[in-house]
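Crash report, auto-generated. Payload:
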Amino acid sequence: MLPADATIIYGLKADYPERCKQEKILYKAYEYFVDEGCRKYRLTYEDSFSAYSDAFLSAVQNIINDRFDGHSSLKTYFYQIFSNKCIDLVRKNTTNKNEVHKAAPLPEMLYQLPDSARDIIEGMMTRELKATIKAQLEVIGDKCKEILLLYEDGLTDREIAEQLSYNNAAVAKTTRLRCLEKLRTKVLV
Amino acid sequence: MQQTWEYIEAYFTQALSAEERKTFEVRCAEDAAFAKEVAFYLTARSAAREVLIAEKQKSFAERAMPQQVMVKTALIKKMALRKWISYVAAACIILFVGAYFILKSPAPQQLASQYVKVHFTILSQTMDASRDSLQLGIAAYNSQDYQRALMLFEGVRRNDAANSDAKKYAGLAYLQTKNYDKALECFKELSGMKGLYSNSGDFLQAVTLLQRNNPGDKESAKALLQKVVQENKEGSKQASEWLAQW
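Recovered output after restart:
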């Protein structure tokens, strides 16, 4: 492992402000992967950029959760994840060319469901629903948006409580689920 | 409503028991109102992730602080000299280690560990099934995201008991995460499957036992390898090579 890698990894595992600082360094250091994705996998700049962002979040989550074993450099590890994301996109583009504009990209959690249930849920997850939710996230209130995004950023309820100065994890969880309910009311009612 | 979100979240964080999961899945298929809530939950999570990525990109797009740039430049300069020193040191180490390994025949444990590294670090993927859980699991496995891979493989293993690949891949993911007992459980299940064209269950159990290396594991592994060779099962060639060096 390179010394610079050790600094980044240490910072990513530190408190949230330090993590954000190191995330920025990591993100900028390998931003050129995006051009590599366009050149090597013939992706559009937008797709390659999306693969890079997705790979970045996955890599950060893996590092924080000790799933990066340090046997390779951070660059090699990050590139491997990015490369796999690019291959996924290439496969999606070639196999679902005609369907790509109909449904929203599916979150991986959906694949925990068996086929019968998955098909039903998948049919309800439209691009329109996602667009409405994204629009409502912007008007739901800063606190609610922040807590939902922190959870999506991989923070546990305990860490959210520390970050946003709630009394404990239970309070953070209740607040977070209330925000989700508030979002649902705005979107579905 | 809060209870519904907690219930949905418990399913996707694997906090429900097998029976509760089954009930949840049946409810998704039969109760349209509940399915709508699940769809909302998943779409909201997905939307929040996209907003998060967009916000991070926006904040990263700002120019790096001059101090960080200086630190980076200094690091690069230092690394140029260090690089050469480390190359020479690495070459010496490789020579010594190489000579050591050439002169000494490796123990079965080392052979098994080397075998896992060479053959199971990357699993082969097909190009035709992007929405298939197994393929997504393989992609996660190849990215060394073993927890996500396990989530996907275990999903298939639970819902399709006849799927031998799901058992094999889940076992391999457990092996990579050094959860040997769970790996053995998967490979035993695989080994017990009848009518497969090729069954690597016994061989993989032996590999796992060699890696676990508890008292008695080496002997059990040897017995399994002998069985693989005698019955000409998958892995028999490798098994006979290892037995020859035992």
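Post-recovery validation: The first helix of chain A runs from residue 3 to 12.
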